[in-house]
Amino acid sequence: MQDIISLLGVGTAHDVCIVGICGMGGIGKTTVAKALYNKFHQSFEASSFLPDVGETMQNNGMVSLQESLLSDISKTSMTEVSHVDRGISVISNRLRCRRVFVVIDDVNQVEQLKALAIDRDSFVLGSRVLITTRDEHLLKQLPVDSIYQVQVMDEEESIKLFSLHAFKTYWPPNEEYLKLSRRVVDCCGGLPLAFKVLSSFLVQRSTKFWVSEIKKLQTIPPLEVQEKLKISFDGLNDDTERVIFLDISCFHIGKEMDLVKQILDSCDLFPDSGIEALIQRCLVTFNKKNKLMMHDLLRDMGRAIVGEKCRDSSGKWSRVWRSEDSVEVLRDESNQ
């Protein structure tokens, strides 16, 4: 947290500062932004926290978001906007009147920022803007002053957060639950959203129930977590990028980037731009050895998408990655 506080520079820098918070779905971007907003918003003349901007725009329209921002920074509940262009003009004028702290949460299109007049020239010196998104490229388009990448939690941090949800304390109550908690957080891969979802149905349950649910979790990730992660997949630019994501999730995790690009290029999938898009949307990463990596829950989500169309027969899937399924497909083909 101290790193992003330094990037934000509240009370130490007097120019306009725009900081992006980036990371995969469910990793805690909004939680970080809320903590910063709660810590600093009273230090400004006006402030606004706009949650779930992408979803709100889709459900209620851009004008509703403009009205919410205007209401916050003007400190009045009576703020009506006739159309988007008019809203941009009014917001720009209001932002120039006072030093503000604005948080724009879960942005998925740069046009949303433009419609909210999020531009350096709109703000008074000393103002601060935080933007959370899964798309790093979007932040570079604005551009922002700096980007904070939210990382998955280590094991000790994970156990503390999971225990807080499951037991209302910072550590499991006994050794048996500690061992089970370690197995749960290992399945979650340091993803805060998964801790919250799983703890909700493990709380006040017996250790026998925990063991059963952990076995289930190892093969079937929680639906709520998958749906949250799938937003990034659905938001990819085209089917080619989706195909590349599914191919990586099924076949190419841990393989050298150059080799994967050669394979994808032979399938006319334009891997240079496609893999770059996946990296910018935090769907894949690469390690120091230039090998492609993917969070386990993203991998499971991708494979679940492949299996959706025919759950009962892997032989009808578009991809098979387990050796036993491959044998079944070949056996079925040979019998036809």
UniProtKB/TrEMBL annotation:
Positions of the Disease resistance protein Roq1-like winged-helix domain: 240-308
Signal peptide (residue range): none
Repeat in keyword set: yes
GO terms of molecular function: ADP binding; DNA binding
InterPro entries xrefs: Apaf_helical (IPR042197), Disease_R_plants (IPR044974), NB-ARC (IPR002182), P-loop_NTPase (IPR027417), WH_DNA-bd_sf (IPR036390), WHD_ROQ1-like (IPR058192)
Any one GO biological process: defense response
Keyword DNA-binding: yes
Keywords associated with the record: DNA-binding, Leucine-rich repeat, Repeat
Domain NB-ARC: start-end pairs: 14-168
Record-linked Pfam families: NB-ARC (PF00931), WHD_ROQ1 (PF23282)
Protein name: Putative winged helix-turn-helix DNA-binding domain-containing protein
Organism encoding this protein: Rosa chinensis
